[in-house]
Amino acid sequence: MSTILRTMRNIYRIGIRDYLHQMQYIGDTKAGTYIASDRYGNKYYENVDDELPLRTRWVDYKEKEYSPCHIEPGWHAWMSYLVDKPPTEDAVLRSGQRTWELPAHRPNLTASRAAFKTYSTVKPKTAAWEPVAAPR
Known about the structure:
By secondary structure, the protein is an alpha+beta fold. Helices cover 21% and strands 10% of the residues. The model has no long low-confidence stretch (mean pLDDT 82).
């Protein structure tokens, strides 16, 4: 959570509308430089001057129901401080979509009804014991 002075300074920089949006989705106020957006519509920002170390980069997701799997690998490397330049400036990461990558985003379906469930097609080697009680 931020201090009152930092919050008021960020409200002055970003405006009331963006302040309410940030409080709704990230729970903090941040003001920074717009870096770029990816092919999914997520917006990436950076503020090296006023933020705490390792909290200078953030993403504003396009979707309201977001998941960290909505970040492309190049942007994930930049957000995690693995590379210094964003994918728009790095020659290796700017190569675009590779032939082996999926053309569209496939969401993570873990813990949903559409999650993969294993099953066996082999007949079990043991059978469950059914106790039979003789009438008295």
